[in-house]
Here is the input.
Amino acid sequence: MDYILGHTSAGSTHSCFLCTHPTDAAAFRENLVLVAQEHAFVGLNRYPFSAGHLLVSPRRHVADFSLLTAEEYLALATLLRESAERLKRALHCEAMNVGFNIGKHSGGSVSDHLHGHVVPRWAGDVNFMPVIADVRIMPQYLDEVWQRMYPAFSDLEGVHPQPAFRADSAPK
Here is the structure.
């Protein structure tokens, strides 16, 4: 509810999660970050369309590709390509959707910080719940998906979270 209401625990307006989540390696697992590089990072979507739904974002707060430097654009595109390949290996998905929502009216919930979506897909993965009740059913907890995805990203250059996979260390 804090995210939906736009408040931090202190009650003030929250900052952009795409800016804050990749800054503290100690909080990467809690923030679902898989790897943070100098100009881009990858994390799990907290409100996914399917298990393993990734967000790939530049580190700098920009709303459009045209605002990226050449170095930032290359880093984002490379990490997007790497993410798609690693998602296939880790989750054995049969297909995927890759895309960006750009602009306030594009359908995305975050329009001022550019980010790409990499969504794994399987035959028969869409059911009637989103159509009838606007409800999504997730077959796996986000921390379990993070644990499964982390090894696929652990060899990429960048800052990585500590992979403490004990059940008692899961975020609350």
In short: The first helix runs from residue 2 to 5. DSSP finds six helices and five strands in the chain.
